Amino acid sequence: MRTGNLLLLVWLGACNSPSPAPTASSPLPTPLERPRVLRTDELPERERAILSAWRAGGAQWAELEPSVLAKPDERSFLVDNLVRDLVRHFEQSKLAGIGEADGPFERSRAQLVRMPADSTPLLVELTAKGDGVVAYLSADLLIAIGPGARAPVAERCSDPSASVRRRMVELWGKLPAGETPIPTAEWERLGALARHDPDWLVRGEAQSSLASIGAQQQNKGFVAGILRQGLADPDLAVAQKAAEGFGVLGEPRAIPWLIDGLTRLERKGAAAAVKAGRKSLEVLSGEQRDRTLPEWQEWWDRIGSRR
User: 163: number of CA atoms within 13 Å, CB side?
Assistant: First the structure.
């Protein structure tokens, strides 16, 4: 049984014109080349049985599930159709209410989370595509899948498209950190985007995401250094993101860097960035005081540096 015969899912709106029905000799399509949606009655008997059992649930699915999960092409077929059903049920508002038993939306979502090796590649591509509801649901699923989705998401952070880079950098910052250390190469990839990406939106998003994930790490020095450089970004909106990031990161030892960077920004008249940075100073110091920057410097010299 070839995967070309199994695919029921179109690239969820990417293909409006009909394409020829797949044959047994069809090459494996890439996500952006999914064939047209087939009606259930057009599918071979085995695929109809899989969909029927899944939608029936209970004992019927429990009996068939082990054999489906044992075959890569059938897992791929199931994932495609679960994503399609997920989007359809969401758009039709078929979500279980509080206290209600899981419905088809919740079942599809839970099954996709239980199949990360098969679902993550497709979900990453759908998120990168940025197709409204589809991208939103895909990103939400990747967050639920958790740390296992981090590496594939990080790879797409270097996409040629600035909008894709920004979307994936934002998602990277929302993924749970997990117990396994994040590879150095991944930190460096995001750090390079924060410092050198040609698109200011990407640089700003990278500042925020690094601060968010860095806050969950024991060693915050690398991210603090990136934020320090971010305060000097030529785009003041990026500098503001860096100023906000210090408060998110939660590294009090970086207070001198923040005061110094804010002092330079104040000379440039960057009021929004300075305001954000002063909020971060309150968070880092634990003192809710409306101090000027010279007053914050005096506080650090007298008290803060000795903590």
Answer: 6
The count of other CB atoms within 10 Å of the CB of residue 180 is 9
Give the least confident one: 22-26, 157-161, 206-210: 22-26
- Helix axes 162-174 and 133-145, enclosed angle (nearest 10): 40
Tokens 């590496």 found at: 151
Does residue 261 contact residue 297 with C-beta atoms inside 8 Å? no
Report d(CA 149, CA 143) in Å as an integer: 8
**Cα R_g (the chain), whole angstroms:** 24
The amino acid present at 135, given as its one-letter code, is A
Opening angle at CA 32, ends 31 and 38, nearest 5: 75
Nearby residues of 20 by Cβ (< 8 Å), 6 or more positions away: 35
User: Which parts of 92-197 fold into alpha helices (H)?
Assistant: 104-113, 116-129, 133-145, 150-156, 162-174, 184-196
User: Structure pTM?
Assistant: 0.82
Residue type for position 225: G
Q: Please tell me the distance from the alpha carbon of residue 281 to that of residue 183, in angstroms, as a whole number.
A: 30
pLDDT digits (tens, 9 = 90+) for 96-128: 667 666 788 999 999 999 999 999 999 999 999
> What is Dmax (Cα atoms) for the chain?
78
Query: How far apart, in whole angstroms, are the C-alpha atoms of residue 230 and residue 214?
Result: 15
Residue with tokens 């497709």: 122
- Contact call for residues 172 and 144 (beta carbons, < 8 A): no
Q: What is the spatial distance between Cα 32 and Cα 11, in angstroms, rounded to a whole number?
A: 6
CA distance 111 to 114: 5
Instruction: Compute CA distances 287 → 66, 213, 283, whole Å.
Output: 57, 24, 7
Tens digits of residue pLDDT in 203-226: 999 999 999 999 999 999 999 999
